[in-house]
From TrEMBL:
Domain of life: Bacteria
Classification via SMART domains: AAA
Keyword Lipoprotein in annotation: no
One term of GO molecular function: ATP binding
InterPro entries: AAA+_ATPase, ABC_SmlMolc_Importer, ABC_transporter-like_ATP-bd, ABC_transporter-like_CS, ABC_transpr_FbpC, Mo/tungstate-bd_C_term_dom, P-loop_NTPase, Transp-assoc_OB_typ2
ABC transporter domain ranges (all copies): 4-234
Sorted UniProt keywords: ATP-binding, Cell membrane, Ion transport, Iron, Iron transport, Membrane, Nucleotide-binding, Transport
Protein name, as recorded: ABC transporter ATP-binding protein
SUPFAM superfamilies: MOP-like, P-loop containing nucleoside triphosphate hydrolases
Keyword RNA-binding set for record: no
């Protein structure tokens, strides 16, 4: 159990700042997902925390101890921090048991920590196998068991499921989450998969171009994204232009958009161009159109059984996609429907173009 604090971490490669002032706190015993697109600096961040990279500015503090800073650089082997990479972490010539026991003292082995770690990841009894006798998913489980075995201060997971297919990935991340919880481990899970971050982590740090742009619980990041970019990256977003009326006083204010009136709480003051966020599950579709609904035409229906993604063309020609829970039947292209927004949206001011 350990608490990690990152303060203003900068890491440059030549003139490129891969990390450009990262602030992040990971409370003890929790899992934080660092979510960001490819190339935003996620792996660099983990490598700095583990000590494989030196930082150019800032401070990395584990349990109150500075392990990296202007005058400190604790080498990786003395940080008790482990990284689980995307794949290929195992020694191919060692059995599962010896892989998991690699970093353990003889006393810990005798106390049965290897079997304990294998049970944590659901692989009790697999110790005598060789890595090549295991599936890709099982090999990643072994890699996680090996990382957990010495009870590190921190476990860093660098897109550890991304080489696996979707079904297996969901099962594995659930089991790895449970294993970390059962062992009260503190961890960072790096991913570019928003579904993975939302479903697995206690908190999410959204990263963009070397900076953490938002940090909070999965629900708060999803419901109150800091800007339109985060909204689009974390979940599906419908972004609509609107105008703030001068002198509006209502809260929530009701804005008119191509989807009809949208209630927005905490509208930025002043007047001018806004971007309004609505989530696809907030769009209600009625056929025949409900009174007062905006009239639209169905242009596509992606039927999934438990829900459907229905795309409609609005009167102004724009297309939006709604998520309809448990529809009775797919909606035929060309159907005239009504669309309305339920609940509240969010709005941001559109930045003035630079002069
Ligand atoms: P991510 O893991 O989010 O995909 P990385 O941390 O791997 O991103 O990379 C962040 C940025 O730093 C990228 O622009 C990448 O090209 C650059 N970078 C990473 N490692 C090096 C390196 N060893 N030398 C030069 N540039 C690097
Ligand atoms: Mg990476």
């Amino acid at each position: 159990m350990s608490r990690l604090e990152l303060r203003g971490i900068v890491r440059r490669y030549g003139t490129v700042a891969a990390l450009d002032g990262v602030d992040l706190t990971v409370p003890s015993g929790t899992l934080t997902a660092v979510l960001g697109p490819s190339g935003c600096g996620k792996t660099t961040l983990l490598r700095c925390v583990a000590g494989f990279e030196r930082i150019d500015a800032g401070e990395i503090v584990v349990d109150g101890q500075v392990v990296a800073g202007p005058t400190a650089h604790t080498p990786p082997q003395r940080r008790q921090i482990v990284i689980v990479p995307q794949e290929g972490a195992l020694f191919p010539h060692l059995s599962v048991r010896d892989n998991v026991g690699y970093g353990l003292s003889r006393a810990e082995r005798r106390r049965g920590r290897i079997d304990e770690a294998l049970s944590l990841v659901g692989l009790a009894g697999y110790g005598e196998r060789m890595p090549h006798q295991m599936s890709g998913g099982q090999q990643q489980r072994v890699a996680v068991a090996r990382a957990l075995a010495p009870r590190p201060s921190l476990i860093l997971l660098d897109e550890p499921f991304s080489a696996l297919d979707a079904g297996l990935r969901a099962e594995l991340r659930h089991d790895v989450r449970s294993a970390l919880r059962a062992d009260r481990a503190t961890g960072i899970l790096v991913t570019h998969d928003q579904g993975e971050a939302l479903s697995t982590a206690d908190q999410i740090a959204v990263m963009r171009e070397g900076v953490i742009v938002q940090h909070g619980s999965p629900t708060s990041v999803y419901r109150r994204p800091a800007d339109a970019w985060v909204a689009t990256f974390v979940g599906d977003a419908i972004l609509l232009p609107a105008q703030a009326e001068p002198g509006h006083r209502d809260d929530p204010a009701v804005l008119s958009t191509a989807l009809g009136p949208v209630a927005v709480a905490g509208l930025p003051s002043g007047h001018g161009a806004l971007t309004v966020l609505v989530r696809p599950e907030q769009v209600r579709i009625t056929a025949p159109p409900a009174p007062q609904a905006v009239i639209a035409t169905v242009t596509g229906d992606d039927f999934h059984g438990h829900d459907a993604l229905v795309t409609v063309r609005l009167p102004d020609g724009t297309h939006v996609t709604a998520r309809i829970p448990a529809p009775a039947d797919p909606m035929a292209t060309g159907t005239r429907v009504g669309v309305q927004v339920e609940g509240t949206g969010l709005a941001w001011r559109v930045p003035e173009p630079a002069e």
